[in-house]
Each structure stands twice: as C-alpha cells, then as structure tokens.
Write a structure and sequence with these properties.
heterodimer, A: 3% strand, B: six-stranded mixed beta sheet, 10 helices, binds adenosine-5'-triphosphate
C-alpha cells in the first residue's frame, strides 16, 4: 500500500545526485582501517609483553573496552545513564560461578543462562522505567546495582559472602582456558568483534535511529522511530554484554568477590564511556585504556579512587563535553584543513 | 480522508483548541490560519499524536487516531514538519533525511550489527533517494553538509525532505515559510504547489497570506482555539469575521 503511494514525480534521479549521495557514505577506509590497525596491534602485542602481569593489565583494559563500548551505546546514543552496570556484570560473574561450582553446569551453558536471565531482568526494568522521562533509569539502575551487591554479600551459602568464591576454569570446544596467555587472544578477539559489531550497528538504520532520537526525540517519533523500544533494546543489549563479560572475567580471574558488582565499578564504566567520548566507539576503547591504567598510577590514593574518577568525569564534562577522542578528532580535522 | 470533530485540548486553564471540526479531502491542499496563539500548532500536535486530545475525535481514513502515538501514525502515512526546527544536529544533513525512511528499513539491533540492512543495496538506494529529495526541496547544495552547519532556510527544507522520505499520504507543514526571505518564500510556495500536484494531501499552517491564498484549496481560520471560518481562499478573503480578527490582532500589536 505504501509502495503504491510513492509519488514517482517527486524528485528525479540524475548521475550527479547519485554521485553526490554516494560520496556521503562512509568509505571502506574510514570505517575499517582503524579496526584493522587495532587487530594488527593486538596480534603483535604479545611480542612485547614481558610477563603475565602485563598480560593481565592488557586483559583488564580489553574487558573494560567491551563493557564501555556496550554502555556507550546506551549513554552516548540513547542519552540514558545506567549506574548499575556492574550489577549486571556481577550477576553474570556469579551466575557462571554458582552454576558451574555448585550445580556442575558446563561453563558455556552457565554463561548463556546467566546472560539470558540478566537480559530478562534488564528488559523488565526498562519496561517499567524507560516509559518515564528524565533520569529515572540512572536511579533505578543505581538501586538495582546496590541490591545485587547486598544479595551477593548476604547469600553466603551460595556466594561465599564478602570473602568471595573461587571459579573453575572455562572449558569450551574441548579447550581449557586458563592463564593470562591463553585468555589474552579471547579478550583481544572480543574487542575486535565488539568494535566491528558496534561500528556496523551505528552505521545501520537502527544506529541512525538511535542518533536521531538523541538529537530530536519528537522528530524521531514522527518518522516512525519507536524511541521507547529502542532505548529498551539497547539497555538490554548492554546489560547482556555486561553479563557475558562478567562470566568470562569470573573464569579468567578464578576468584570473585561482591566487589565486581560494586557501585565503584559502575561509576568506573560510566567514566570510561563519557571521558573517552560519548557516542564514540574508539573513545570507549581509549577511555577503557586510560581508566584501567589509572588505579595502578594512583596506587597511593587508595580509597579515594571513586572520588578521583568523579573528578575526572566532572572535569571532562566541563572542559571536553564531547569526550577526549571526539575532541581530538575534531582538532585534528581542523588542523588538517 | 481526515475528519476532525469537536476537537478540544486544554492545558490547565488555557483551552488551546476548542471544539474544532473540519474535514480534509484527499489530494487537496488545506491551510489552517489564525493569529499567534490561535491553537494551530496545538491542532497539528493533536492530529499527529504528539498531544492527546482532551475531547473530540480525529478520524483518519476511517479509523479513530486521537491519542495514537506518533510512531504508529507514521506507519499509517502521517508525516509532518515542525514550526520550531526539529532537526538532529548531531547528524549529517543526509542522515537526517534518511531517518525518514526508517519504517521501510530493517531496524533490528542484531541485524544492524551484522550488516544485514545493507544487503541488496537498501542503504545505498535510501541514500540516493534522500539526495534526490534534498534536491527536490531545494537544499541539494547541502547533501554533503553536517546539519549543524546549515542555514535556517535550508534546515526548514531539510525537514520537508525528511517528511517526504517516509512516502506520506498526508503531510502537515507547520509554518514552512516562517523566517524566510521573499525569494525563499516564493520557492516554498512553488514547492507546496508541486507537492499538491503529486497527489499528497497537504495541510499547512502559515502566516504568509499571499502564499496561503495562492496554494490552498481550502482554508480553516482559528481564533482563540475556535474555528472562526472555513472556505475557499476567495471566501475567506472577504469573510467579515476573519477580517475583523486579523485587524483586531494587528491593532493589539501582537
Ligand atoms: N504544551 C503546552 N502547555 C501549555 N500551554 C500550551 C502548550 N502548547 C500551547 N499552549 C498554549 O496554547 C495556545 C495555542 O498555542 P499554539 O502554539 O497552538 O498557537 P499557534 O496558533 O501555533 O501560534 P503561532 O502562530 O504563534 O505559532 C497558546 O496560548 C499557548 O500558550
Ligand atoms: Mg504555531
């Protein structure tokens, strides 16, 4: 029906218009060259990593990069903040830990089931909250994160309480994953996959809809973009990614405490996305690297990390509101002209 | 095609639209005019689902649409532009127009991640169509521009291109010529006339009387939320109530 109503007399095609239109499409180089460079760097990195400690540092950066990319889809593209993402991460981690340790599940099925449960939980929260305007999601997820930490701490018979619990190695496709050098390619591969998938998403009709609804919600709705549905789906997506990363990190670390779900961890993730650059995939990678290294650099300020993260977050929002990577990119473009 | 009956919208103490009834015939250009604050934009917001009516009914192609969400009305072929620009400034110009094709494309998140919507050149075709429409509405010079770097007049046209991208059955234009100079207003007039010829039903709010009189098949006049008069341009021009309302508004210096 709508096909028939296309008034063919509106606008006409000409080779010039077609050429001008196609010139606006992001080119192969612009889209994929940085990813290829990243993949090469990650492939070569083991050549210069001297020992397991440095592998561990890089793995933490890589895990945080995936989390920040997923969270940035929500913050940077939907304009919604989740202050409880560590809660989803923690549920994934403990879901895997409990199911594999106490119930003898295989690691992949524990990971899958934890991810699905977290997805359902996030969907329920979003259904209730996202219909409301404003920053209710931030508050609801803040509360949710706190509840998760409390439950993980109190259900000591399952979780080991505040002392934490150990998690067995992950076995998948007959492989046993243990040790930094085995896990490194897994996390490196996940980052590349996350960058590619998020890059595709942002350039797809869904990504365009997300960016559009951030710019003008009413205009987006009028062209048929179901803004509530998009926010819900992106929230669920980012929560599921957090759960999956939680499961993998639990197996990698071999030992987890309720700290993995702490408010501090949630703030850290938000800071990575915002400082690196909202609505910027590479910004998230950069933010993850910067803020994962920070605790080592700030070792003297133990106990004040949350405060320092807060200061960095606020300073970025005031001085570089677009975040570090988009601001630099803009500067470089201007220089280049 | 569209029948509005006894439509009323109250904001607290202000009744912005009060018992308004009229009909829009398919394939015509319909204008809604009236002094500032008469309730024209509110009327559009009611019909396009942005506001829910306090009472009354809006029937579009045989079914009641009062209070139906804008994203659902978009599926039925209702499209619009805004008096206060609603362009996504974080997007490029052509991306803004391409959002108009949203309903015709695969907008799944997972599909988007694996590049599915791009298969078969859908994105490419959408992009080309967007550029054609930008040319058609007269902002073809900005195909490669970022929205935030475009001048006001071009952004007004960009909104029309975005609305057309959805292949609407009925198009609501809220003051398309506001803030435009004489030449630009003339071009918008030609554009609306051209749209009318293609069979799209157009409903238009506009203060520029020359434009309204030239392009409209029928005119509804609102004043203080009420329908003051309705008729052809020739009838409205000589309607004593309309003349009085406009002279009154002018002498109040509004
Ligand atoms: N969201 C709202 N909340 C409260 N009052 C509103 C709202 N929208 C409109 N109004 C009021 O309703 C009345 C009609 O406003 P409306 O914008 O529909 O007028 P208009 O005819 O479009 O005027 P203009 O020619 O200036 O665009 C005004 O008194 C306005 O203040
Ligand atoms: Mg108005």
């Amino acid at each position: 029906m709508s096909e028939a109503s296309i008034p063919t007399t509106i606008g006409r095609s000409s080779p010039e218009t077609t050429a001008a239109a196609l010139a606006t499409a992001p080119g192969f180089r612009a889209r994929h060259l940085p990813t290829i460079v990243l993949a090469i760097v990650l492939a070569l990195l083991p050549l210069v990593l001297p020992n397991a400690y440095y592998y561990d540092v890089v793995i933490r950066i890589l895990a945080n990069a995936v989390l920040a990319i997923a969270l940035n889809l929500l913050i940077g593209y939907c304009g919604q903040i989740s202050l409880g993402h560590a809660g989803f991460f923690g549920l994934g981690a403990y879901g895997s830990a409990i199911l594999t340790t106490h119930y003898d599940w295989t690691a992949p099925s524990a990971l899958l089931v934890s991810a699905v449960v977290v997805g359902l939980l996030a969907w329920l929260v979003a259904r209730v909250i996202l219909r409301l305007k404003g920053h209710y999601l931030a508050m609801a997820t803040l509360g949710l994160g706190i509840i998760v930490t409390i439950v993980l701490t109190n259900e000591a018979s399952l979780t080991g309480g505040p002392d934490g619990m150990s998690v067995g190695d992950m076995r998948i496709f007959g492989l046993r994953l243990y040790g930094e050098k085995v896990w490194y390619p897994v996390f490196a591969g996940l980052v590349v996959v996350a960058v590619v998938l998020a890059g595709n998403l942002v350039e797809s009709p869904a990504g365009r809809a997300l960016r559009a609804l951030h710019g003008s919600e009413v205009a987006a709705r009028v062209v048929g973009i179901d803004t509530a549905s998009f926010k819900t789906r992106v929230f669920v997506l980012s929560a599921v990614v957090a759960a999956i990363m939680g499961s993998l990190t639990a197996h990698y670390l071999g030992f987890i405490t309720p700290q993995v779900a702490s408010f501090h961890k949630s703030v850290e993730l938000v800071t990575m996305a915002v400082v690196g650059g909202m609505a910027s995939i590479w910004g998230s990678v950069f933010g993850a690297a910067l803020l994962s290294l920070l605790p080592d650099l700030l070792a003297h300020f133990e106990g004040f990390e949350t405060v320092i993260f807060g200061v960095i977050l606020v300073a970025t929002m005031i001085f570089l509101p677009r975040g570090i990577v988009p601001s630099l990119a803009r500067l470089l473009r201007r220089e280049g002209r | 095609m569209l029948r509005v009956e006894n439509l009323t919208k109250a904001f607290g103490g202000v009744t912005a639209v009060s018992g308004v009834s009229f009909e829009v015939t398919k394939g015509t250009i319909h204008a809604v005019i009236g002094p500032n604050g008469a309730g024209k934009t509110t009327l559009f917001n009611l019909i396009t689902g942005v506001y829910t009516p306090s009472s009354g009914s809006i029937v579009f192609e045989g079914s009641e649409i009062g209070g139906v969400a804008p994203e659902r009305l978009a599926k039925r072929g209702i499209s619009r532009t805004f008096q206060n620009l609603q362009v996504s400034m974080n997007l490029s110009a052509i991306d803004n127009v391409m959002t108009g094709a949203h309903l015709g494309l695969n907008s799944g998140l997972l599909a988007g991640m694996i590049g599915l919507p791009d298969l078969g050149g859908r994105e490419r075709a959408t992009r080309i169509r967007a550029a054609e429409l930008m040319e058609f509405v007269g902002c073809g010079a900005y195909v490669a521009a970022e929205a935030r770097s475009m001048p006001y007049g071009a952004l007004k046209r960009l909104e029309i291109a975005r609305a057309l991208m959805a292949n609407p059955r009925i198009l609501f234009l809220d003051e398309p010529a506001a803030g435009l100079n004489h030449t630009e207003t003339h071009e918008i007039e030609d554009l609306i006339a051209a749209l009318g010829k293609t069979g799209i039903t157009v409903v238009l709010v506009e203060h520029d009387m020359k434009l309204v009189m030239n392009v409209s098949d029928r005119i509804v006049v609102l004043d203080y939320g009420k329908k003051l008069a309705e008729g052809t341009p020739a009838e409205i021009r000589v309607d004593p109530d309309v003349v009085a309302a406009y002279l009154g508004a002018e002498s109040e210096g509004v």
